Amino acid sequence: MTEGAAAAGVPPDGRSGLYALLSRSFAFPTPEFHREIVDGRWLESASSSLATLPYRLQPGAAGAWSASGGDYDRFQSEYIRLFEVGARGSAPCNLYGGHYARDRLRTMEELVRFYNFFGLRLSPGLMPDHITVELEFMHYLAFQEAEAGGSGGDVESYLRAQRDFLDRHMGSWLPQLQAALGAQRPLPFYRALVRLAARFVECDRRYLGRPDGPGRLGEGNYG
Amino acid sequence: MASPTLAALQKAEAASEQPYRGWEDIYRQQWRWDKVAWVSHCVDCYPGNCPFRVYVKDGLVLYEEPGATYQEIEPGVPDHNPMGCQKGAMWGQMLYSKERILYPLKRVGERGSGKWKRISWDQALSDVADGILDAIQEQGPQSIIHEMTGAQGGPMALAAVMRFIGLVGGVSMDLDGVVNDFAPGMYLTFGKIFASSVDDWFLSDIVLIWHMNPAYTRIPYYHFISEARYKGAEVYTIAPDFSPSAVHADYHMPVRPGTDAALALGMCKAIVDEGLFDAAFIREQTDLPLLARLDNQRFLRQSDLQPGGRDDQFYFFDAKSSSVVEAPRGTLELGNVQPALEGRYRVRLADGRDVEVAPVFELVRKRLEEYTPEKASTICGIHADDIRALARKVARKRTNILLGFNSCKNYHGDLMERAMCLLLALTRNWGRKGAGIRIWSAGPWPGMMTGMKLMPGPEGAERALQMVDAMIRSLKAEDPTISQELAVTELSTRAAAMGEMAPPAFFWYYHCGFRDNWNHTEWHDPSMRRPFDEYMDEALSKGWWQGHVRPGENTIPRVYIECGGDTLRRTRGGQNQLLKHLWPKLKMVVFIDWRMNTTGMFSDIVLPAATHAEKINFHFSTAHMNQMVFNDQSVEPAGEAKSEAQMFRLLTLKLEERAKARGFLEYLDGHGMTKRLDDLYARYTLNGYFDEDEKLVREMIEDGTVEGVLPEGTTLETLRRRGYIRFTDWGHSPMAVNQGSDLKPNEVHSPLRHHTEKKLPYPTLTRRAQFYIDHDWFFEAGEELPTHKEVPKMGGDYPFVLTSGHPRWSIHAANIMNRIIQDTHQGRPFMFMNSDDAAPRGIREGDQVRAYNDMGEFRLWAKLSPAVRPGQVIVYNGFEPVMFPGWKDPSNAEPGMVKWLHLAGGYGHLRYRSMCWQPVPIDRSVRLEVERAG
Fold first, then answer.
1. Closest chain B residue to A30 measured between Cα atoms?
2. In this predicted complex, what is the ipTM?
3. Rounded distance, CA B920 to CA B569, Å?
């Protein structure tokens, strides 16, 4: 927590922290990540971030976050089945937002320009519309917003950017991802993860779009 | 102070100084790029060769457009611009498509189950290397099979994998045998295949679009056809259905499926009867004046007249001297000889007997009696008056048969093509601008010397060139009558048995279950008098395919490498055949591609390939364009993808390492030559010199200047600046040399001018365009001359004939999943059907239907159209099997028949060489029934 953020009474780990955790969670799972889920550390981190949101959002029952039997090979195979290759040559639940739009190139271009506007560019080997990238960008914007709020900077700029970004990108396609996933009988962890991400983004859209401004009514229950 | 956690994103330039006000601030940043580069879409979108510019931002291709920078070649002939089609214009959608493979994968469930795990490149290559070594140790290196397409990878990919296969002693299945764009009828006639440049079409007076649909398949070049009409050309489509190309033609001839030979022969008959044929041309260029014995129907040969005489020396009857004279073998010049086209003459054989002989033209006249326009009309369904009218035009005007790659996929496509060639022969319609016939044909290959050289640098190319030239001189010393073209052709024929390429027919016969299909007598023409097995046995026992039956019957295939193709989609018989018969034998299926396809789904190891703009490459060169079109690497490969060249370099290293660990370093290949594994990388890369793709490409370009196929001084930088450059010569690539014309910088390319202008001989038995094939098998079948035969009922006695072609909306299957293009059609597999056929079956527009025959079945959706001929159904190819219910596509109902006559050998030019004479799979006019699916 920065001094500025603390002074404003806005916990910096809340929204920004949850975006960062979700971004990391949608990446291809490493054995270490799988262990985090199995031994409960992932759920602890998620719960900690959820607790500091300016609105209420529940993680759901602990059992919903099961990695299912502790078998890493099966876990990563499931990730590939759902999100990368699928059983018909393409992922049934695509993690690239551009695939939910008509023209992926136009989507990617807009995202690249969004990132550039804020002085960022893609790390090598990644696509701008991958959910990990979009979530990380929201993490960045939310963090910057909190910093600006604490230091008297231009909060509105970051709020507008977050709102536009969710409206034009993640906010519109995450529900489609969730619907696609529902038809695949996924492992519980991924079902719960996508559900949490979709709910969080929806809550955040409403939070960012409140006419009385975000942060003014921190006790709202959006979850 | 805490910082945001960035991994997927990183700090770059400073953020905008202005605050963010809205998404419009983002929109205003358009049209700012990091770089612009040349690419081409190096898939086999034949002829393709469209230079595109891509616009790159943050390492991504975000925009593309045709370059439109081609120059006019021949004054007065339109240039090629703008080039490109809707597929190319949105290739970026495929670059970043959902089917894109980004990481090496290993199967963890059953083949086809879709269960994978990611593995590292090191593990993937180790597994592949171990699989290859296991196969070599168990079955020998010919158990390693590569299906030669490279269509998705481009020529650099093809070169990479074939060099590897050659070094380890595996087998590459001949591309033209696999896909069947080989025209056996053209080959029987000319001893080669060829094509004009597309701008040559502009110079035609009559354009016969025959077995072709350029409105769908030649979008960038169609304008040459429509522009020709401005100068008075007439355009005909000859097709059973009112095809999309018929919409734009002046005339449509709705020929009954499979009866094109009758139509062509009907026109020939009209021309001969009305005396419209060009006697001088057929005397000089064809075998029609050669004498045939009327006792045994064979050509009169020197071996008939003299003990120990040649079997390839033939005779005319000279009308001037009234004597039988030798037809020159080294030239088409007749000098003072005037070969008779008519009459009967007597000759005394070496055994003392007198026999009667006649010019082949007499036999052709007799054959044509069966094809008066009235008789031809009853066969093909075109009115006799229309047959005569077109014949008279063809006789008077420059006529170009735009032969599509449809004819060769017909059972009797060879007869159709031979009949078309006869029509052109009678009317002097080849070897001059705006006239002729064409089929798939490669162009110059600047990498030829690079692939052959033993040391890097121009000196290495010079030495390779000297070696090739020395071999050619040696062949000319053997036979001083051969031309440069004949020498190159002979060299490639002799080299074929020692190379890595083999015709797939034997592989299919022994290892893929097609032997059963090919022995279905009722699916063959009734003139096949004996079981297919007997023809196969005879062909093999007589040594006609000596050295080309690879892998042999007793070598079980163990490793299958698919690099840029989709064998389970494309092979006629498809999954029905291959999954049942071949796949169980394979211990490892290696799939290399940039996108997942049906074959990938059934593989064991998936290696992600870089695609256009992600690797340096060229478009496949072709005589249709004669340009070397460049594709630069403008972005890094997505994910962990690599170029095929890089993959195979790494694989050679891994194979060496694994071989050394096993202590298995040496073995014999299928030719009895020793192969070593401990220096594989050094031999693959010329001692490490070609350790980067760009270095290899740079060298290929420079070697191209050494060989003379590229302008002097051409470098990689030239191509990076211009995007393309015109070839200056054909080089030594056999298919390029077989064009048989000089490649001129300011003229369209019209093949065969060496024969018509320089009077050089053809690479046939008779050294002439040959219509009379006096081979035992051809006599037995009644096909010693072109004739018409009905299409056999392949698949069973069912009422519909299934036809196909390439669609407008995909290049093979490459773009079939492009969702924007899918919006321009049904977005799912569909079958065109005539409404009059659908109604009695209760089939309405959009209904799911079941198509079936004795071979198999498939389901898709009906699209009713009056443009489809009753009794015909059309399913354009390219739909991935995964798009069909149950993953069963039309290939499941295709028996994949081959015509037994294409096994014939021991006869002049009926010998295998790369992408030429061989049995090829048939799918057009397979029989089906169609019913509404429950």
1. B118
2. 0.89
3. 16
Partner-chain contact B19 A121, CB within 8 Å: no
Please tell me which residue of chain B has the smallest CA distance to A153. Answer: B19
Q: What is the DSSP letter of B57?
A: E
Q: Name the nearest CA neighbour of B286 among B426, B396, B394, B192.
A: B426
Question: Where do we find the tokens 């616009």?
Answer: B55
In DSSP notation, A163-182 reads HHHHHHTHHHHHHHHHHHHH
Eight-state DSSP code of residue B845: T
For chain B, first and last CA: distance in Å? 68
Which bin fits B854, alpha (ψ -120 to 50), beta or left (φ > 0)?
Answer: alpha
Per-residue pLDDT at A150: 87
Cα distances from B385 to residues A21, A121, B125, B239, B400, in angstroms, run: 79, 71, 66, 18, 21
State how far residue B73 is from chain A, nearest Cα, in angstroms. Answer: 35
Residues B506-549 pLDDT 10s: 999 999 999 999 999 999 999 999 999 999 999 999 999 999 99
DSSP B554: T
CB B906 within 8 A of CB B916: no
- Per-residue H/E/C for B531-552: CHHHHHHHHHHCCCCCCCCCCC
In Å, how far is B514's CA from the nearest CA of chain A? 27
Cβ of B477: how many Cβ atoms within 10 Å? Answer: 9
Q: Which of B9, B27, B882 shows the shortest C-beta gap to A133?
A: B9
Tokens at residue B384, please? 């006799």
Per-residue model confidence as pLDDT tens digits over B124-170: 999 999 999 999 999 999 999 999 876 778 889 999 999 999 999 99
Contact B22 A76 (CB under 8 A): no
Question: How many Cα atoms are found within 13 Å in the side-chain-facing hemisphere of B898?
Answer: 30
Return the H-helix or E-strand segment holding B55: strand B52-57
Which of A75, A93, A100, A113 to substitute to test the interface with B, most B CBs within 10 Å? A113
- The residue behind tokens 């522009």 is B227
Top residue of B1, B5, B9 to mutate, by most chain A CBs within 10 Å, is B9
- Backbone phi and psi for residue A182, each to the nearest 5 degrees, phi listed first: -60, -30
- The pTM is what? 0.95
Contact (Cβ atoms closer than 8 angstroms) between residue B235 and residue B223: no
A139: nearest CB among B5, B58, B96: B5
CA distance A96 to A110: 14
- The DSSP annotation for B659-725 comes to HHHHT--EEE-TTS-EEESTTHHHHHHTTTTT-SHHHHHHHHHHHHHHHTSS-TT--HHHHHHHSEE
Picking from A5, A26, A40, the residue whose alpha carbon sits closest to that of residue A149 is A5
Asked if A51 and A57 count as a contact pair (C-beta separation under 8 A), the reply is no
CA angle B199/B200/B206 to nearest 5° reads: 120
Inter-chain residue contact A90 with B639, CB threshold 8 Å: no
- Residues 6 or more apart whose CB falls under 8 angstroms from that of B430 comprise B424, B436, B437, B751, B752, B756
Task: Give the helix/strand (H/E) hosting A6.
Answer: helix A3-8
- Please name the residue of chain A whose CA is at the shortest distance from the CA of residue B16: A117
Tally the C-alpha atoms within 13 A of residue B806's C-alpha that lie toward its C-beta.
Answer: 23
Are A77 and B598 inside 8 Å of each other by CB? no
Q: Report how many Cβ contacts below 8 Å link chain A to chain B.
A: 182
* DSSP symbol at B877: S
Among B1, B16, B105, beta carbon nearest to A85: B105
Nearest to B731, CA basis, from B686, B700, B760: B700
Cβ B9–A160 below 8 Å, yes or no? no
